[in-house]
Amino acid sequence: MKNFSNISVIGAGYVGNSIAVLLSQNYNVSIIDIDEEKVRLINSSNSPINDPLIKEFLESNKSRLIAYPNLEPTFGKTDLYILALPTNYDPKGNYFDTSILEDTIDQIRINDPKIPILIKSTIPVGFISKIRSKFPEIQIIFSPEFLREGHAIEDNLNPSRIVIGDNSNLAKRISELFEEIALNDPICFFLAPEEAESVKLFSNSYLALRVAYFNELDSYALNLGLDTEKIISAVCSDPRIGRGYNNPSFGYGGYCLPKDTKQLLANYNSVPQNIIGAIVDANVSRKDYIADDIMKKNPDCVGIYRLIMKEGSDNIRSSSVQGIMKRIKAKGVRVIVYEPLITQSQFYGSEVFTNLEKFKDSSSLILANRMHEDLSDTTEKIYTRDLFGES
Ligand SMILES: NC(=O)c1ccc[n+]([C@@H]2O[C@H](COP(=O)([O-])OP(=O)(O)OC[C@H]3O[C@@H](n4cnc5c(N)ncnc54)[C@H](O)[C@@H]3O)[C@@H](O)[C@H]2O)c1
Q1: Which of 159, 191, 223 is where one domain is finished?
Q2: Catalytic site residue 256?
Q3: Residue 145 Cβ contacting ligand 1 at under 6 Å
């Protein structure tokens, strides 16, 4: 017997889309997003996210997946709500802004109070406990999501683990939902809500730590005129260290690592710590170091080759090159941009070029967080720390 018949996923970003598309192999799934363009794309079997595998799933499951621009059509017709909504970091409050999640939970509570809610958004430690005491009548469970942008389907088909912040019968049914999708045999952890919330923030902070560590190694080697590539290759040959997340960059970036490290630091609150704060600070120091290194080259005009964080990304959220751009512009250097994802002619006052050749000709130095064959004829102008050609 199936665990649920009709499932509603709210938020058609990376997380919501990949989950909805995969669940629609076995269930009737509604996906709700306030962005009407995303709704239109899904209803015409097109993907609003960049993922090499999603199209085939969208086409084969189209009879079981329908998108809506609001929640109304789903009320009274859903057995489980899955929330994959943004939790952006609010620099003023020094905490995640969870207002979209809270407003949506409130709407469900008013209109469909008996239906359980699963949160897949990344949340601060203590959020579930807070929301359960605010709305004791609803069943609400958190399960962290570990997918990578650009590999959302692949990662949900082969999850490294399933973590559920609850031990109830509902928690077991939810874990079965994700085990059904998986092609592998993932280990399942049933934890306290605060433990599951911590797992997500500590996982991403560890990844950020690794990036920051090898970036700091690179700053050190650059300063002493040593060969970073050789040092990292030899360091990472130790299987206890391994090769993952060791390719130097302008800093860790993208939607999740910058905000999740800051949220974990905020959750430490009065708990003594040295490392978590250092992960956040290290990313600032790295960008300062890279910007100073660029300034030593006295460039007339710096070209930014792509604002995205890495190859295959379809958005420019919190990419580290934007931090470098801000720093060198503050020193009076002219900066131009090549970013096909941007349609406007200016980005924070910098001219956006649509013609790659003109962009290359107009730049005296080109910054590339990640190298690309587009730049293979201009290698003498390139400034990158991408040593291994990996993301
Ligand atoms: N992107 C990742 O790789 C990743 C991985 C793991 C966890 N997460 C977490 O999952 C959450 C979602 O991430 P994402 O990358 O999918 O976000 P996203 O910004 O790509 O997608 C969120 C979607 O929610 C929609 N939305 C906003 N307000 C809404 C509302 N009131 N009602 C309905 N839809 C609304 C937006 O239009 C958007 O399409 C975040 O908490 C993030 O930290 C993201």
Answers
A1: 191
A2: yes
A3: yes
